Amino acid sequence: MKNPLLANSEFPQFKLIKPAHIKPAVTTIINKNKQELAKLLERGYGYTWENLITPLDDLQEKLTWVWNTAHHLNQVQNSPQMRKAFESCLPIVSNYYTELAQNKRLYLAIKEIAKSQQYKKLLPVQQKIIRDHLRDFRLSGIDLPQDKQAKFKDLTQKLAKLGNKFSNNVLDATNAWTITLSAAELSGIPEQARMAAKNTAEKLHKSGWVFTLQFPSYIAIMQYADSRRIRRETYTAYITRASKCGPNPNKWDNSKIITEILKLRKQLAQLIGFNNYTEFSLATKMAKQPKQVLDFLNQLAHYSLTHAKHEFAELRAFAKKNYAIKKLYPWDLAYFSEKLREQKFAISEEKLRAYFPLPQVLTGLFEIAKRLYGITVKEKINHNVWDPQVKFFAIYDQKSKLRGQLYLDLYARTNKRSGAWADACRSRRRLKNGATATPLCYLVCNFNSPLAKQPALLTHNDVTTLFHEFGHCLHHLLSTQDYLDASGFHGVPWDAVELPSQFMENWCWQHPALKLLTKHYQTGKALPEKILRNLLLAKNFQAAMQMLRQLEFGLFDFRLHLEFNPKKPKQLQKILNTVRKKISVIPIASFNRSQNSFLHIFAGEYAAGYYSYKWAEVLAADAFSKFVENGIFDRKTGREFLHTILEAGGSAEPMELFIKFRGRKPKIDALLKQCGITAIPAKHQRS
Prior knowledge:
Blueprint: H1 19-40, H2 49-76, H3 80-101, H4 104-115, H5 117-121, H6 124-139, H7 146-176, E1 178-181, H8 191-203, E2 209-212, H9 215-224, H10 228-239, H11 249-252, H12 255-272, H13 277-282, H14 290-323, H15 333-345, H16 349-352, H17 358-373, E3 376-379, E4 391-396, E5 402-411, E6 421-426, E7 429-430, E8 436-437, E9 440-447, H18 460-477, H19 499-505, H20 511-517, H21 529-537, H22 543-563, H23 571-583, H24 599-602, H25 612-630, H26 635-646, H27 654-662, H28 669-674
Parallel strand pairs: 5-9
Antiparallel strand pairs: 1-2, 3-4, 4-5, 6-9, 7-8
């Protein structure tokens, strides 16, 4: 029987792929790649771009095709069999990449190109790729003695296993908890959420209404359930997932895993010659010094704190006056914030759902992309998908040329990782025969599913999430780079990679754009002007509190990797408490263990880099200010952003690309202004 992962097909054969196919496919590709690499290095000298880098890209894409497909399925179809198959490959893949990064002959071959006469004749993008290769060799311990290289390899393998285990624990803890409510306990919860809970109950063969810790279900209780007891119980389960304070503490507790991850990361960084993992992380980012990042985060916190204190005082006064609540607890915040929002602006996230049916939102999103970038997005038939609800789309430019294709997997379900993300399946690059590989990617969210004859109805927050991830997809799909390591978001520093995604969110808050996105799913009527105006007025509702929440995550992550001492494991909670004491204005439960489910930094790629969201948000806000000046659908400005940012990918340093688009370095006050926070004097602006 042929292995579908090894088939020479245009798209992954998702319907044919079984867990049993993964390890044989991975080992086959890796063994072939090792043989081909050995042949490439037999010449010993006279290396050029054509006889080394191009064939290396071929090898890389063959493995990426197989491994990214397996990784994707492990995230969206996390069955016990799939998990076992994926985990069995982790040490194999980790070992392969570490050996590649520590291959002295390969390093010397690329170094030879860097010193050759050909290097001077290469395109700037090719020169950057060579420089990045040499930097990455150094960061992988190429200059270390063999015993320390072996240690580096061992550390990377252990970290890969621990990150995967961390993620599995969060998923299992999330799926394990449910709460069944009676009709009397549903008070305040919207009909949409009730219907979803009833469907869940029926699937589990239970009576009543079953709510879970999947985010659409969780947030429905936190924002709308009138019962304080139910909110507290649900909040407690969510905030203690995968911890000793949560359900099944001995089964999915991530506490020891976190400590071990931090210990190994510090060892790895020190092995390469850095003092800590933060310095190691910054070696590939726009920011270069820890102080630069800390100053940036603390500066944002300083200008947000007064506003946030005012916002919380307003919330507290509202709850006391209208509901006789003398003290607000963490499980009260979302509930009373939504009540205050409704009172101030006469709008409700839940009531807005009726005007944001997913089909209309997608139509509006694609129309906005067309006006900005001249592209057309069309749905295509692709039956070979991993779930029946997955949709497939193709993107064409103004000349009707295919630019890229993407899968949309938008609904929450069991055994699917929570959150939202975009990921590459195949990258654009020029092939040896002169043809161009068409980029392909995934866009994944966890929205409420359609119900019976009713389409999926989104909150405005859901719409913003969709725009964010679509921005990532455009960065990948609209690339015009011919070389793999500069295509899409390849070669883009992690603190700049969020620029296109956060940039796209701006159109969710523009009157002309919102008109394209809204249409009542029953009547077909547009969102009434009064509600539309109120929605825009509510844009900065509790913006400073939200800013501080993200800064808390960023400062905790950064300081943790900067200051962590393996001999003092309790230091982790102390650092988090210190950060909260300094910048948090909301009550924190003593049992809060949100760090135990912090996937971004313990199972993702944001370790000592979560600050990237705010760093890139400054870039995005300032970039959008050019549209504010010229018109939000200004064709010329849209094409400039397309050519200088989206198409450029990792072909140049992000600051260079930003200046090319904006005409100057970014200013931090663009973000503060966008959030309704008082602008800062010019002398304090980051450049």
